[in-house]
Structure formats: structure tokens, C-alpha cells
Prior knowledge:
CATH topology of the largest domain: Glutamine Phosphoribosylpyrophosphate, subunit 1, domain 1
CATH class of the largest domain: Alpha Beta
Strand order of the largest sheet: 3-2-4-1-10-9-11-15
Bound molecules: 2-deoxy-2-amino glucitol-6-phosphate
Strand content: 15-25%
CATH superfamily of the largest domain: Aminohydrolase, N-terminal nucleophile (Ntn) domain
Number of helices: 17
CATH architecture of the largest domain: 4-Layer Sandwich
Structural class: alpha/beta
Distance between the termini: 11 Å
Number of strands: 25
Number of domains: 3
Amino acid sequence: MCGIIGAVTDEDAQKSLLDALRRMEYRGYDSAGVCLREQGRLHCRKEAGKLANLEQSLDKKPLSGHAGIGHTRWATHGGPSRENAHPHLADGVAVVHNGIIENHEILRQALTADGVAFRSETDSEVIPWLLSAALAAGGKSTGMDVAWQQTVDQLQGAYAMVALTAADDCLWFARRGSPLLLGRSKHGIYAASDALALAGLADEVLYLEEGDIGRISRSDAVIFQDGVQVQRDWQAIPLAEQAAGKDGFDHFMQKEIFEQPRVIADILSAYVKHGVGERPDIVFPAAPLLDTAPLPNRIVMVACGTSYHAALTARYWLERYLQVSVEVDVASEYRYRNPVIGPDTWLITLSQSGETADTLEALRLFKSNTPDNLALTLCNVPESSLARESDGTIALLAGTEVGVASTKAYTAQLAVLALLVLKIAYQNGVMNEADTKRHLTAMRQVVDGMHVLLSQADRLQALTPLFEDIHGALFLGRGPCFPLALEGALKLKEISYLHAEGYAAGEMKHGPIALIDAKLPVVVLAARKYHLQKVLSNLREVQARGAKVILLTDMRDEDIPDNVNAVIRLPEGDSFTTPLFAAIPLQFLAYYVARARGTDVDQPRNLAKSVTVE
Ligand code: AGP
């Protein structure tokens, strides 16, 4: 989604801005722009398309200056064009904005009536015009601080934004509903929507709070909250943000698929404390309430996309082992359906980024309705808004995930959820010590099992011809593998642009069977632990209608049905670990099909890594 950078530096600001924009490319965008202040004038350059277009333009005719703002845009209001790209300018001020200004139409009408001629179709362009009007009305006596506050006060909706003026060597910022942080080094102070943007520019970061507004100069940051100046803590830039190379892989997604055994090993070594023969001791340091909290009556899990799929799998584990009623919903539905929350209920949100707008609003709704209930988050960015607003955070420890298609954060979610279930079950006496240890042993075996699966990458690549000349693909599973079918289909569609559907295998006869023919490859997830015979009978129904079948299974060789077009063997796992194994071939399949189709694997069209608007 959109990326913001602002810099006031003693170095070349154009270079700083472009470096930061490049590091935010992974977020997904369709146009980019920068604006620099030089000798009391603003100079702006914007281009539609990839950042390379802007870089080429700046190579030909560079801008100079020590204060500037930059933006990568992901279109919401108005198509991806140079006119709609940020920064937006008005009479000596320039603004970059992330979020959505919900009252922009009313503001636009009023400004138009005052003679403003808008140049773009965006909601964001009202901001510089409001600012220039406030400056003109206040004159020199009130100044930018007051004009900026007056501008912000007129906005409804979500924003992270930074403004630059021709008159000042400072930048002004404001945050509400969209993430924004500051960075500093001996060379200057920066504002950015993403800590990764600041890697290489800043040594320390400061996460702004909701409602923060203020200004940065080359050596100082001033922050106000409700009109009162506040101090916020600077902290060392997270180490994870410092490395973002492909390390010899062709794509970040490929690299991140291969990182998964390391991620699982890190999770186990961070959270499982017992030695061989000792009592199981699973500890989540940033969620200490879990050590004493009794089993709740109900657990609600809310997330989006791939994170939602991880929650769906965990529902099977929670209900089976804890015997607690579990509700799972996509955040965009949960937040608007007037959910009945009630007492003695936990909320668990799941998010790679921790900045997904709908998930964040679902958390806020839950907390405002029932402040005494526990709200936990499983999140890959411990400094994110979701983590900071939750009562406890379990870090996913997956490291920075750059590929838009989530892979290692997903398996990290599954692994952490498995540990969470084991911890609560053992702690509350609903799982005995021997069973808890047995499951933990199986979790440790995931690391080796994943290595075996990774060594089969070529076999998955060899299956890509099955996805040529097709009208779609179907993924089927039952039990905890049903959400894996959803995830396999999501991975395929988001990076290969092929239509794909995931279905509970038992639902197939209720509609999707009508689609089945020789041009609809069907991926069947058949795990010994999850209703194997029923899945196999679904498989036969698919074969009978001429579909090509790819079977992912941990069955013994002799039990494998005849005439399947491909078999991918999964290591034998238990109910917690089989989904972790199944994830890897599904990711490979999507990855290699996308490669074969020549799509942009790491930055698929129209998609954003972190969806910070609803
Ligand atoms: C994953 O491959 C997707 N790109 C997307 O569905 C993602 O999982 C979703 O937007 C949620 O993001 P989050 O985990 O950062 O909240």
C-alpha cells in the first residue's frame, strides 16, 4: 500500500528519499513522486508506474535540496496516473498522504467554491489546499504549526501524512489511523510509514501514537497530542529491518519459503523452555497474562487473508483440545456486524504487518465494548499498531517478510498457534504432560520435515504444465487442511492471476463439482489424521469427471489411489504439524506456476503488502 518518506538532512535529500522508496517497493504501488525544497522553492517530480520510471526521470534531471518528501501510491481514489501521484501541491506547500479522507467530497466542494482548481481525482489533494488556505488566512502571525493543526482538524478518516513548505526547512507530520514513525541519525530526522524505509537512513526510530501531530527539523522532533507537547521514546531500529536482500534467490517469496525451517526453529527455541525430560514450559514473554489467565468461555479470532486462514486452522485445534467455543471471522465483516461479544471472551487477532486497517479496527471495537476481556495478537511486527494496542503480543519471529504473498509469516502463525494451544491445554489440565511432550516433539520434527519438503522444489516446478490452458484450479481439504485449501488457492490466484478456489472437500458436491472437467486441475490435501477415506472418495469423484489430480498426502505408498497425475509426499505429522508441512508444497506450486506465467511474483498487480486502508 502507499509508502511515505520525509527527510530533513545534511545529505542529498533526493538520494535519501529514493533509497527509502526503493525499500518500500515491496508494499505494492502504482506510481511514485518526490518533492524537494531548494532555495525557498518546491520542485516536484512524479511518474506513473514503477519506481524505475521516477528514477530515470530524476537521473536525467536531478533535483537537489536537503528537505523533501516522497511517496509510492496505491490507487484508491483516481487511477494510477502522474496527476494522481503524490506529492500534491498547492501554493507553496506539498503533502504526501496515506489513508482515506472520508469527507473529501465536502471539503473539495467548499474549496472549489473558493476558487481552487483541483489537478487530481484524489481525496488527498484537499490536504495541501486546506493547508495553504489556513496559512493564507492566518498570515505570518500564526505560522505553520497553527495552520497544520487547523488543517488536520478538518479531516475525517484515516491519515498518515507529511507536509513540506517552500518557506521552511522543516516537515510537518500527523498520524491517525495509518502508521507513521520518525527516524534519526547524525545526518538528520526522517518520517516514514514503514520502519524498513528507514533502514540505512536512521539509527533510531520513534513510533508515533494515534493523534500525534508535530514537526521535524534537521536536529529536532516536536510532537503534540491534544495540543500538549509530549515526549516519546526513541529506540534502536529493529534489527530485522536492516536486512532486506534476496540472498541469491530470484525472488523474496522464494527466499522466504526457504527460510521457514529456520523460523520454526527460532519460534521453538524462543518459546519452549523445557529440556529433555522436564515439564513442558511454553512462555510468551510479551503476553504474561497468559500464564495465569483461566480458560475463557469463548475465543474470537479475527484477521484478514492468509492470517485468517491460519486462524481457521487453529479453530480445529482450540475446539478439539480446549473444548472452548471458537468464532473466526474476517476483520472487515466482524467490525461491522455488531458482534455479540459478552464477558469471559478472548480476542486473538493475527497479522503479519500489524497495520491491517480492518484488523486494527476489529481490535478497537472489541476493546471499547468489553475492556475487561483479554485481547491478544499474534503479529510479526512487535512495534506495530496492533501489537501496541493489544493486551499481549506473541511475536511471530519470522523476520521481515517482503514478498506480497505471505509464506513464512503464515507458517509462523500456525506454529505459534500450535504452541499457544499446547500451553493453555497443559496449563489448565486438559492435556496431560505426556501428550503435551509428544506434540512438542512432533513440533521439533517440523524443522527437518520442512527441509525434506524444500528439497522437492524441482518436483513442484515440474508440475507447472498441469496449470497450462486451464480455466481455474480447485483445492480441496477437510478438517484443519480445509483452510490449507483456501490458502493454496489464495496463493495461486494472487501471484499467478489464475482463478482458483479452495473448498471443504465435503462441500464439493454442493456446487463446485459443476466446474470439474479436464481443464480444472484439482489439488487434494489428504492427511491420514483428517478423515482420509472421505477425502479419497471426494478424490475419486473428481477423477470420474476427468480432472487432473495433484495429491498432497502422508499416506503410505501402497494406499495411494491409482491414476492421480502427481503425488507430493508429506512427512508424517500429528494434528498440529501436518498443516505446517502441507503449506510448503502449496507455496511452491503457486510460486512456480507464477514464474512460468511470467508474473511479478514479489509485487503482484493491484496488491499491497500491508493493507492500511479498509
Ligand atoms: C497474503 O498472501 C496476502 N497478500 C494477504 O491476504 C494478507 O495475508 C492480508 O492482507 C493480511 O495481512 P496481515 O497479515 O499483515 O494483517
